Predict the structure of Alpha/beta fold hydrolase.
Amino acid sequence: MTTTTRRKVGVAGAIVGAASAGLAAAALAKRYAVGRIRLRPDLEANEPFGELRGRERTLTTSDEVALHVEIDGPDDAPVTIVFCHGYTHNLDSWHYQRRDLRENYRIVLWDQRSHGLSQRTEKQDSSIERLGEDLFEVLETFVQGPCVLVGHSMGGMTIMALADRHPELFGDRIKGVGLISTSAGKLAEITLGLPALLAKGLHKVAPLTVSMLGRGGSLVDKTRHAGNDVAFLVLRHFGFGDSKNVSPTLVDFVESMIRSTPTEVIADFYPALMNHDKLSALGVLDDVPTAIMVGEKDWLTPPEHSRAIAAALPRAQLTEVPETSHLVQLERPSVVNDALRDLVKRVEL
């Protein structure tokens, strides 16, 4: 080996060594940061996230998809509250609402198609309109008396799709609506907190990126299911407005819920969310008491989306929750639960 060759090999080795050392240092810093977070007092350490269960039922939809449904609370309650969860979540995302409201109200929770324990469906059936029809069939099967519908994120869109297809239900059987961290449309225009130019570029590449991830979903899922500190830190920062004080146990719970949603399902529903536009259907909700809630720091469905919904519903009550992000029902459950109790009281009057 010549002197020049040895020198090139030495430089290459130094670069590789420096890169490896840098990665190792970054990994160590990441573990140190997560370790410090987990050592802090955790008021939710003993909270039984994902363990609350109701009377389990299965609904086979008109297109032969088996939906997982749970019924909780007294069957003779005057009002039933139906909860519709968000994108990549499942019915356990309503943990605090089920825990605190099931003593006084009949509660119906369900896993939207391809989420939670419900059956996977084909990409062409992964639409907001189909979710609205699923909700209609849930109501027809499990709700005979007056009810209040509550939806978070994609679940709110599901309610809007129901209003678009079955407006006759609102004011008759559906007596009230709660819309939490959701949007009536134009999600493809959100900036995610980025400068306008970067946000525009991100929206251009996001559909192709998500589609590619979906095609390699099984391979991607193998790495996701391992769980990692990066997912914990990212979710803690972006999912919660008060990230410094959020319970690590709660972050782990949400991260595991998202991780359990197959990458192919995430990819299948992404176009439906981006193309969602139900602003014209909102007028139907003006016939019933409506509560709108959003986190002040929500980056996924920003407050201006809830304000647009409120502008279309002059009689609705809008609550913007300070120091809170997209998962407001988990981050500030007492605020959400008080608003829902007030909504039901308005219905009962």
